[in-house]
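User: Show me a protein chain along with its predicted structure.
Assistant: Here is one chain, sequence first, then structure tokens.
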Amino acid sequence: MFYKEFNLDNFEEIQAKLVPHVLSFCSKFTQFWNHADATELISAVPELKNAIYQITGQHPLKSYVLTVKDAPLDMLDTKLNGNSLHRDTSVERYRLNWPILNATSVETRFFTSDADAIKLILPTGETYLTFTEEQSVLTDSNILTKPTLIDTHAIHGLYRIGEKFPRFILSFNFEKELVL
């Protein structure tokens, strides 16, 4: 399984507070990964803390706003200098992604591949293992409409499927390993 979506009874209530709060500071972001203070987010929207705990059994260690200002017609090439099909090499395998604005304009597609990965070092110092679509097989996809745990160690890529941009989502990581 590459992802798991969560239905929360108070999701709309949380969104009514969380979306305007995140939009109040994220419009200035120009990078894909942007740090957002998890403590401040929870302070502004206290219901978020319980919701995240309900999903993960933990409180977030760090949080980020993932920003796509606009996108080419297909794969989001600008993120990884022409090759967005990748698998993360971070310590944590699962991240909790939370839609904020225009999340449905992008689809996350998951792949498998027997090909050797190409290691890419991002400007942030993070590394990704990249793949080509020609050497990969599409196995699943997800459009973010609700809080969703994503397996970032699975090969995945972001694809434009809508017209509304910018796209903002929150992404949380945790101290202890999550299980899907």
